[in-house]
Amino acid sequence: MRLLAGSALLRACRLSSTRDLPVIRVARRTQLWLERLEKRQIRPVAAARAGTPLISTRRRELNQAFTETYSRWEQPSLVSGGWKHRKSRGDYFTINRRREHRVWPETEDTFRALNLDEHVVSAVETLNITTPTWVQKEVIPRLLRGHNVLCAAETGCGKTLAYLLPIMHQLVTRKDFCRDSPRSLVLVPSRELAGQVTSVARSLGSQLGITVQFVGGGRRRKVTEKKLERVSIDLLVATPGILWKALKWNKVSLADLYYIVLDEADTLFDKTFNELVESILMQTQIASSAKEVQGLHGNAQLVIIGATFPKGVEDILRKVLDLGSIHTIKSTKLHLLMPHVQHTFKRVKSADKVPELLQILKQHAAEKPETSIQIFCNTSKTVNWLSYILDDHDIKHTRLHGSIPADLRLGIFKAFQKSQTDVLVCTNVASRGLDSCRVGTVVNFDFPDTIEDYLHRAGRVGRVGSKSQGSVLSFVTHAWDVELVQTIETAVRKRSSLPGMKSKIQHSKPNRNVKENELAN
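Above: the chain's sequence. Below: its structure in token form.
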């Protein structure tokens, strides 16, 4: 209607200059605006097709069909485009599942085909795992050949076994047991993840005669020292802080490692841990080629694992090895929303988040599904506050955040894994690497601060072994939340990876003068 009125006014302006009619005086600025309005070409809405669209909303003109695409420079119309205005409250859109099956189906191969030791294969088969996923098929042979590996792949695709099985193979086949220091190390950013990796490693190691020890922060020094007194530790799982303290206390040595694994590397290389990780790596001897791994006193292989590509990795690794020796394995779905998971974004005001959440939880309790709900908040204070509200409504739940004593945190998540409760209210401490196959719904009560955090939270559903494909519901409240949502929506509509995240290692060129000096010598 507005466009038609503008066109009529513009035609009247033109007629006034050619006929003896009363002059209609229009400001030049207004006339130019009317001309632009007349020339504006509105993108035609794709014809409705059978089936569910890629993006659906209550405003049908903003729906996007699966077949509709945009060019690189074309800016799509966004549902969230006007969400910074208060009148947008109540609006929503859903990114629907593009496929019913996970993007990492199990391969047709077996673990025996990967040249693993027969005892290791038997151990993993006792866990009812008989077929490797694509990431295991890619990572395991390279590690068995002695290469350093950086693997960046989507959450929930089986990366833990991808590095644990080669470690077990190495520990079983190499017979130099006369060592007083650990033979392999897995470094993780949280106690919860360390406990989970330890549990899986012990399930395998108990059948292979391999000792697994775990040390984490929050314990007294005597407790940590007692754990490290064991003469033979085949596999040590640790968090950076306590491991660095143990190194300073001379209670552990990293000189004789076969493997050093940095799990959830994108967190380990951020500003919280990067100095500790660098200091720990400087205490090791990392191989720069497969030949250096062989022999009784071979150097350690480096394995870097993450669901997003770690930032700052070059700055640290350049100090301990040649970046050219790292074999990068990157998923084609890296930094993309998983197509088998449904994502819903809802624009709400802060006061409406609790009623919306209570409705979801009561509906979940009424349906009594086999899956559970994980609710994410940005701070420990919000977790505690929301927990009190759920208590007032008699909703059984548990809470997990970094301010809870370390001794209690491991038990809390294990209870959630064992179905003792169906609702977990937590911070990002429960968003990285934890086995959450029971989780069917993730609720972002507070929208995450970064896109990386969103990917990790969303990765709690739709994992290998999950009972459902999963869904993610996010409450969008603040202007800075809207900006992140607009970035996500734009990437999905353009079928592109999420911006702002690296996807490869940049190999630095050697200094020309240094190279000439080396040749002269």
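Residues 513 and 519 are 10 Å apart (CA to CA).
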